[in-house]
Amino acid sequence: MLKNIPAILPPELLKLMSEMGHGDELVLTDANFPAASHAERLVRCDGIGTVQLLEAILHLFPLDTYVERPAAVMQVVKGDPVIPIIWEDYRRLIEEYEDMSEALEYEDRFDFYDRAAKAYVIVATGERAQYANLILKKGVIFPEPGQVQERLNSETY
User: Fold this and answer.
1) Residue 51: CB partners within 8 Å, gap ≥ 6?
2) Do residues 39 and 133 touch, judged by C-beta distance below 8 A?
3) Per the residue annotation, which of 22, 118, 128, 151 is the catalytic one?
């Protein structure tokens, strides 16, 4: 048992998130995404929605601050009348956890598929909203304030 780990995150996903390095990508997919055929590493979270899972992930997972937009969604296919209101939830959570107001980029459907196939892990969810797919680029964890200075002061030159 561990403390302060969101119970919604399965152990396999926690392990993979820990293995990921700076710049590696994690994909949250909706129920319609062809996750099994695109994933090198697949975690199934079929009973969970992407918004719930994103919030739990952002509790632990830093987004990349070295790129302009560390998250990506799949653009609505031309002519499709869908308005993906779920993107507003993604924006809100990313702003809340990472203080980034313009974190989302919009990928063409097939470019999104290609990028997802190269991701470190794909997480298949039970999300039924259309265009609820989301790619997250992992960032770095910075030293606590004061740690860098303490280290510099303790080194002998």
Assistant:
1) 86, 89, 90, 93, 127
2) no
3) 22
